[in-house]
Amino acid sequence: EKFGLGRPAAPDEIAAWDHDVNPEGVGLPVGSGSVEDGEALFGDYCAICHGDFAEGVDNWPKLAGGQGTLDHKDPLKTVGSYWPHVTTTWDYVNRSMPFGNAQTLTVDEVYAVVAYILYSNDLVEDDFVLSNENLLDIELPNKDGFIIDDRAESEYSKWSGEPCMTDCKDKVEITMRAMVLDVTPEETKARKVQELVKSTNPRNAAAAEAVPAAAEATTEAPAAEEAKPEETAALDPALVAKGETVFKKCAACHQVGEGAKNKVGPMLNAVFGHPAGAVEGFGYSKQLKAAAEGGLVWDDATLAEFLAKPRDYIKGTKMSFNGLKKDEEIAAVIAYLKSFAQ
Amino acid sequence: GDPLITEVQQWARGLGEGVDATPYGLPIRFETDVVRRNVPWLTADPISSINFTPIHALDGTITPQGCAFERHHSGAIELSKDDYRLMINGLVDTPLVFTYADLERFPRQTHVYFCECAANTGMEWAGAQLNGAQFTHGMIHNMEYTGIPLRTLLEEAGFDTSAKWVYVEGADASSNGRSIPMEKALDDVLVAFKANGEALRKEHGYPVRLVVPGWEGNMWVKWLRRIEVADAPVESREETSKYTDTLANGVSRKWTWVMDAKSIITSPSPQAPIRHGHGPLVITGLAWSGRGAISRVDISKDGGKTWETARLAKPGEKMALTRFYLDTTWNGEEMLLQARAMDETGYVQPTKAQLREVRGENSIYHNNCIQTWWVQSNGEAENVEVS
Predict the structure, then answer these.
(1) Which residue of B100, B174, B301, B310 is 20 to 30 Å from A102, comparing CA positions?
(2) Are A149 and B105 inside 8 Å of each other by CB?
């Protein structure tokens, strides 16, 4: 039965949305890109999370390494060690990356980035050029490492039937406790300690209040006193415009301007001229919070130093960006941020 | 006497809020502890991450949308009904585009189903790790969905009956996509736009998400924008590099879609210790199976030596949460509490040791082991493993 609802999809509409690529290469567009170009693109768009050598930053996915670890404890699963098809990598980079700025790479740029990921996994040489012509020729090491769900055969018959109800074991001993690892999020733990103190001894209710709740500690306003925004000379519009361009490197993680919200990084309105670590609702690293408590204020000098080498300036910062290499770029971005200083 | 009784209280003398105070209400402030929580160290960033349903603090079976766990790959997007489009293309007679208003004109159905992330309990493979049912088992919710059978839309487009797969894709930046075998697509998959009677919440895919009963949550694509009929699976990132289960020998299972029978005692539990004295105690929890209805739940107080059968709040329903109760007496004795679910296929929920024997400790996904809570004489409970 047909209802006659909906309308035919136009060819350009299908072309705009139908981008998936399957392991036979169906959907792979014509194009090419070199490892060399891929390295530069990767540095600009991917390294912030995945590291310069695709080795991963913090908890962000590692894209290289790990070959031979799949049967070890905590295997390292990367494109080189785990993914079965190069087409999947192409498809994912094309449709879903860069994180926070998806579908901005051209077809050739996607080929180049994938070429660089393959190179990082020692699967191609540094002069390799990946294209729709040769992509299917590349076999990933773990292509035969998968079997189709076999639970029906390997498990279901074993774990069926009338279960034991009495005398099922001789003895029972505790072999592992979650409290020993102690990785349950702090907020819950702190509350539990407070409750525990209160409930086990009512006279200790006052003492319980003294148990610092981690949740409260993190929401406390950092650096209570408001620093005075610096007197700034009128901004050079050309420099601000240049800063807007350079800021694209930051935009995967940061928003600035009207309606800016916290993303991977904090929103950057009213950051220039203000104490560090003060954007409401953003979870800063311990180290940045410590610097903020130490009185760090973002001005020309501190921002310039931070933007040149973020991880040197604040060891342990969550900002995994490698830094702006050119002084002109740093000056431009600072000018751009000043224009939102309020 | 109790002053709450002997003295006239403010709420018995004065007035409460008028009917215009909260046109769409939130829980009363005394319940602010009943919230979704995340585990910051699990992921690099809260935008591509997961949080957990406070199952320790809920009862019954329906999960309120406002505290039902969320999993996003590129954040929860805002997509209005007016801007919504759903495309069906690929091996069909006529590729079609539907608006939201079009969808509301197809015959619709209403069903209750659980949605469980394949990674639920995934942090417990190598040992007891997180101390609370919310964290060990909270990647699950259970809602009453209203929507259109996917089959109806496929028929409207005139799908190629020899096609083996459909590929479903979301509108968000992650363009999360999964391949679903045609047999399942034609069976019970829903294109849903209401949950628990109200519009889907933003974080659950407003205005339209896919409902894939009994199968892993990652396939329940949110902000559903495209359905492609195909003769082969896409083998997307989410069905190769993720949501595949690595065994001890390094070989990985793929296409492990169905969620096997599982249960969890929600109270008492580490976040819901026994606060009352000795005497009557209600032990309660949830059981579910992606392969059908729950037929029975047994509870052990001694770490699996002896078992007694719990009372089901109502008969198990297919691919939906079932609430169980054991009305018992507690006199301060230590307990090693376990629940064990059985479903209508005769499957019995395995122990962690049984699972590890077949799969090792690296699977990440599909951990449906029996959980143990150690309830101590003061009523506190802890996540433990037992021999």
Answers:
(1) B100
(2) no
CA distances (Å), origin A187, targets A97, B23, B164, B273: 33, 31, 48, 17
Contact between B362 and A167 using a beta-carbon 8 Å cutoff = no
CB contact under 8 A, A167 and B237: no
Q: Which CATH number fits domain B72-249: 3.40.50.720, 2.60.40.740, 3.90.420.10, 3.10.25.10?
A: 3.90.420.10
Each residue's pLDDT expressed in tens, for chain B with a length of 387 residues: 999 999 999 999 999 999 999 999 999 999 999 999 999 888 888 899 999 999 999 999 999 999 999 999 999 999 999 999 999 999 999 999 999 999 999 999 999 999 999 999 999 999 999 999 999 999 999 999 999 999 999 999 999 999 999 999 999 999 889 999 999 999 999 999 999 999 999 999 999 999 999 999 999 999 999 999 999 999 999 999 999 999 999 999 999 999 999 999 999 999 999 999 999 999 999 999 999 999 999 999 999 999 999 999 999 999 999 999 999 999 999 999 999 999 999 999 999 999 999 999 999 999 999 999 999 999 999 999 999
Q: Which of A49, A50, A62, A71 is the mutation pick for testing B, counting most B CBs within 10 A?
A: A71
Residues of chain B contacting residue A77, judged by C-beta atoms under 8 Å apart: 241, 246
B126 CB neighbours in chain A (<8 A) are 73
Are B253 and A146 a contacting pair at CB < 8 A? yes
Which residue from B45, B106, B252 is facing A3, i.e. has the nearest CB?
B106
Q: Which residues of B touch A204 (CB under 8 A)?
A: none
Q: Which of B104, B110, B85, B80 is nearest to B95 (CA)?
A: B85
| Assigned CATH for A16-137 | 1.10.760.10
Identity of the residue in B90, B97, B169 whose CB atom sits nearest the CB atom of A13 = B97
Cβ-nearest to A149 among B43, B46, B255: B255
Helix/strand/coil for A313? helix
Backbone angles phi, psi at B159, to 5 degrees: -75, 150
DSSP string, A56-113: --TTSPP-S--TT-TTSSS----TTTT---HHHHHHHHHHH-STTSTT-S-HHHHHHH
Name chain A contacts of B128, Cβ cutoff 8 Å. Answer: 176-178, 181
* Contact partners, residue B187, CB within 8 Å, separation at least 6: B151
